[in-house]
Amino acid sequence: MTDVLSITFIILILAEKYIIYHIGFQLSFMVTFALLLSKNWLMNSNSLFMQTLQISFVSQMMIIPLQFSYFSMLQPLSILLNVFVVPYFSLFAIPLMYVLLPLSVLPKTLLKIIDTMFVNVHYAVINFVRWVDGIADYPFMISSVSLIFTILYFIIFFAFMDQLIRQKLQQSFMIGIFLPILICVVALRPYLSPIGTVTMLDIGQGDAFVIELPYRKGVIMIDAGARFNFDDMQATNSNAEQIIKPFLYSRGIKKIDALILTHEDIDHVGSVAYMAGDLEIENIIVSDYYQLTDENIRLLRAYDIRIKRVKRDDSIVIQEQKFHVIAPNNNYHSGNENSLVLYTKMGGKSWLFTGDIGKAQEKEIVKTYPNLTADVLKVAHHGSSTSSDREFLQQLNPHIGLISAGANNMYGHPTSEVLDALTAEGINILRTDINGAVQYRFKGSRGIFYTHLP
């Protein structure tokens, strides 16, 4: 049987070499291989229920490293749920598909009866799974696993299964306890690490910054932008589902201590609604002039998220990390001009996050704070010509300018005018449309910027 599996594996790769990267291909062969190796243990059971449970256990344990690598999470109850799901697909759904094919020559009325029966049963099963997911959704989150973890995991798992098949239960147990220990060690890694990070995510035309404090003392986000449909100007879930949540999960992050929203534009806040259901957001922080809609209020109440308003010269403190509110000082009756401007120090550098403020607000800031400087500047309004005033840049005197903009965006951001102004002041430019995501990793007062191409 292993020869048949191997030949099938080789034929499929010869037919389509890139299929090896397909997650369904990987999961299918890994599970099948594990079940073949475990067939003697599975056949020893006289109970159909126990045999199904054993199959579910082996299947789940075999793919854990792959699950963590792709999804950064594990649903512990999936082993029990598979006792129901696997037989349904193996004994009913898939065989029925094969039966229905030759029956397609039957009269349409009869086929419709069979089809209706199948659809009703199938939806009942899917709704049951969704119901279980709704009341027992407690995933085990872990940051991305390394090759060393994967090798160690499979060595321990194969040794555990070998002793189990040989019915050496005591030896099997002694080996098996190292599996949860290994997983827990990896899960605890961020809480033991002195490394902190500031990541400018590449979400296209929008802003999303993730700040991870050392020893995982806190996770802070500044903005969570979304793409939108031009037909109805409604935010889509693509950034949340494809970029923001996968990144947070890959870092083992399930909880955000503070989500700071600079202003109301979709490219800064549109993903919040799609994040709230899957992530625990403890606080949302906005300015005194941020306009909350009825939909915003319903969202906050539904997920028990605290809202906090701040004004100029207030301090936002998250686990000893202090952000000083620089602006807005007045209500300019415009989302961009009312953007929250935040100043903080991290990793031996001073940072200024500017939202989408314009030149008038920049001039007002340097006039009010004549001694304000910053090592790292989040260039305002994605590099629009409405921002980045020369006087503002000269006083701040930053070494790094961060620009979050979509590749070939319709607005022409960042503009040549802004790029020339930044270059003239000797500011090193890092931009998502060229460099992909940008991450500053620091330890103590020293750090390095890294770029990650899409």
Description:
With 454 residues, the protein is of the alpha/beta class. The protein is 46% helix and 18% strand. The radius of gyration is 27 Å and the shape is elongated. Helix 2 (23-37) packs antiparallel against helix 4 (48-71) and helix 14 packs parallel to helix 15. The model has no long low-confidence stretch (mean pLDDT 91). The chain has helices at 2-15, 23-37, 39-43, 48-71, 78-100, 108-135, 147-165, 169-176, 178-192, 238-250, 266-269, 272-275, 294-302, 359-368, 390-396, 416-424, 432-435; strands at residues 73-74, 140-141, 195-200, 209-212, 219-222, 255-256, 258-260, 280-281, 283-287, 306-310, 315-318, 321-327, 341-346, 349-353, 376-378, 400-403, 428-431, 437-443, 446-452. It has two domains: 2-189, no CATH class; 195-452, Ribonuclease Z/Hydroxyacylglutathione hydrolase-like (Metallo-beta-lactamase, Chain A). The strands form four sheets. An eight-stranded mixed β-sheet has the order 10-9-7-5-4-3-18-19, with no helix packed on it. Helix 14 (359-368) links the parallel strand 14 (349-353) and strand 15.
